[in-house]
Amino acid sequence: WAVMAAPLLIGTDLRRATPATMAIYLNQDVIAVDQDRLGVQGQVIADRNGTKVFTKPLANGDRAVALYNPTDVATTISTTTAQVGLPRAAGYTMKDLWSKATTETAGAISASVPPHGTVLLRVRTNPSWSSYPPSVSLGATSPTAYSGADAAVSPGGTTMVTTTVGNAGKDPLSSLRVTATAPAAAA
Questions:
Q1: Contact predicate 121/94, CB 8 Å
Q2: Closest by CA position to 137, among listed 184, 78, 51
Q3: Nearest to residue 107, comparing CAs of 165, 65, 70, 49?
Q4: Below-70 pLDDT ranges, the chain
Q5: What's this model's pTM, rounded to 2 decimal places?
């Protein structure tokens, strides 16, 4: 709703709201996107496989970008700085408005978005892009019984897990290690 410049309404009994709920309601970065003085409503720039990419120009030249996944399966949603309307630049920074992490990118905007979730970013041209860590994505896939199911390995069995690492930053990654853990056995 913040990207659409909609009124932000609360449908919760605030006396019973959890700290996590209040953190969402009081997120100043999200409120700033909603109430940006330019007053422009965001628009859908991509609609693929049920997912959507929204962008909203902001008064200082930044772009708010919402990667929306209404499906039942986590998915990677991607776009570019050119597609969201930013000018060509040496580098860009992206601030995740939920986690507050800021990373640099050469122009790719991408995130793994949980089912029924939204990743909300503030993207800008930034001459100091190199002082930020690169935007890195990590994925893992394995055979499943059906699409969207968790992988299962029977006792004593094995399965193939394929990992992918993406680097949207301008500098190469080095000394890369990927580790995995499995849940403890059920009692």
A1: yes
A2: 78
A3: 65
A4: 144-150, 185-187
A5: 0.83
How far is residue 138's CA from residue 49's CA, in Å, rounded to a whole number? 21
d(C-alpha 25, C-alpha 63), whole Å = 21
Tokens found for residue 134: 């690169």
Residues 153, 154, 155, 158, CA torsion sign: negative
CA–CA dist 116, 120 (Å, integer): 13
Residue 107 near residue 80 (C-beta atoms within 8 A): yes
Q: How far apart are CA 181 and CA 156, in angstroms?
A: 16
Give every CB contact of residue 120 below 8 A, 6+ residues apart in sequence: 2, 3, 30, 33, 64, 65, 66, 67, 96, 97, 98
b/e 27-62 (16+ beta carbons within 10 angstroms → b): beebeebbebeeeeebeeeeeeeebbbbbbbbeeeb
At 147 the pLDDT is: 64
